[in-house]
Amino acid sequence: MARQSLISRRVAAVAVSVVLAGGAAACGPTDGTDKASAGDKAGATGAALQKGGTLTVLNNEPQSDFDPARLYTSGGGNVPSLVFRTLTTRNREAGPAGAKVVPDLATDLGKPNADATEWTYTLKDGLKYEDGSPITTADIKYGIERSFAAELSGGAPYLRDWLVGGETYEGPYKDGGKGLDSIVVPDAKTIVFKLRKPEGEFPFLATQTQFAPVPKAKDTGVKYEEHPVSSGPYKVVKNENDGEHLSLERNENWDEKTDEERKAYPDKIDVRSGLDAAVINQRLSTSSGADAAAVTTDTNLGPAELAQIGDNKELSGRVGTGHFGYVNYLAFNPKVAPFDNPKVRQAISYAINRTSVINAAGGSALAEPATTFLPEQEAFGFTPYDHFPAGKTGDPAKAKELLAEAGYKDGLTITLTHSNAQNRQTSPEVATAVQQGLAAAGITVKLEGLENNAFNEKRWDVKNTPGFFLSRWGADWPSGAPFLAPIYDGRQIVTNGSNYNHAQLNDPAVNTEIDEIAKLTDLAAAGKRWGALDKKIGEQALDVPLFHPVYKRLVGKDVKNVVISDWTGVLDISQVSVN
């Protein structure tokens, strides 16, 4: 998880490149060679999917910082994954199967040593850049090293924490050609990573765009994003206004025999950003001209738009539904009274009216109630629990009982800090729903609304963290590790930057269990232990899980082969056909 300088970009990455599926949408016919899809939304008639045509992408946020070093993209991202291949990538299948990590440039998921402190990868044969030159492991090493340069910051911070010497490395522009000793390249097809501690989930990390190869001779520093050298099925032919308009065309030197994941049906991809969300959804709904072959990678349907779609079978048949590993919650800072009293935190947990909260979040079509911190997906190790059963509308009687035991038999007054951004997650609507629910238990809630940047700065500042605030968290990959460790590992408390451990929990038993799970290369076994740890931490009432968001997005009427996985939760752009 990123430090404060990366928080805005990380939230954008979560919202843009990660959010729609769970396999909920119907599956349409394919040509028999494609992966199972979460819905052929264009209503294919069973004909084989064909290459050709132009896919239009209509987005609100520009695809800025289009440099593999600066992108914070789980699984390689969506649009970026068309240009940048990595050692591993996400499995391009619908639903839970899509939460698995699979080889990409590498022949396998990597070979760990006995204690998972060293990982070795071998490249596939026949890998080439857009200019026909071979992709080598030296290029992957260089691509990673340049991500340490201050001027190219913005990507995931794990490499700095995990690689031996990474914490002090400043990148290739300052190292005099020395490079990182912890990345060893014995030959053009082999690369070895030496880690500071066991990391059984290194194959997940190897999906990040920092693992994309960059030929040193073609590196133009901060200008590289204008024309990065493609290792994927498409190359950048135009990048205007810092990603506001991207034009991608087929990379003729990409060999589909080396890439089992990307279908690359369209000849061209035209990405247009800076559009209002309502305009995007209206254009997709109308599907006139080029918009008939259009999708969005960052704009969801809202309650009003879903109501308008209603029983319209043609439009509803073009809506994809998805789930991403994400939780919205109430956070406590136990360093601030009265939240230092566990019974107060428990009382609030019992008093929550989740029905009101979900209605504020857009209704049951867009939010599902949560009583666990981990999302309800097997990949995260989800283990059901509800330590403070409040039912659908809260249990004010139990809450009052606990308040009396805590010394507040006449109730208490507290402040809830929230964002003024209209995001239906940390926004005034949700804060007001919390306020109304707690009022039934005799808890008066004063609302403190802040501009979004100020809100983020305050909630992540360990010295000024509010006692009670709305928050949210999304996983960098589908596992319990990037979900629980940044929030509950006491060694990740940051006193001079962005701190995500809102409770400032520093429990040796929790820290030790995090380390023990990290040693496991059996991800299924690790998942069970992440779930058990989530349940154990939940007993302390350090936060109140509220809901897991549901994402619904519209596609143009000519879009075929919509695949939505539990990794990204959104339509996988690499699988779409428009011809």
Tell me about this structure.
The chain has about 575 residues and is α+β, with helices and mostly antiparallel strands. The protein is about 25% helix and about 15% strand. The chain contains 15 helices and 19 strands. The protein has helices at about 5-15, 135-145, 160, 200-205, 275-285, 305-310, 315, 340-350, 355-360, 395-405, 430-440, 450-460, 480-490, 510-520, 525-540; strands at about 55-60, 90, 100-105, 110, 120, 185, 190-195, 235-240, 245-250, 270, 295, 320, 325-330, 365-370, 410-420, 445-450, 470-475, 545-550, 550-555. Strands 8-9-10-1-11 form a five-stranded mixed sheet, with no helix packed on it. The longest helix is centred in the C-terminal third of the chain and has 16 residues, at about 525-540. The chain starts with 6 loop residues before the first helix and ends in a 25-residue tail after the last strand.
Task: Write a short abstract of this structure.
This protein is of the alpha+beta class.
What characteristic shape results from the CA principal axes? globular
Tally of helical segments: 15
Strands, total number: 19
Uncertain segments = 1-46
Radius of gyration: 24 Å
Strand neighbour order, sheet with most strands: 8-9-10-1-11
Instruction: Report the average pLDDT across residues.
Output: 91
Report how far apart the termini are. 39 Å
Helix content: 10-25%
| Helix-and-strand structural type | alpha+beta
Sheet-strand content, in percent, reads 15-25%
Q: Largest beta sheet, briefly?
A: 5 strands, mixed
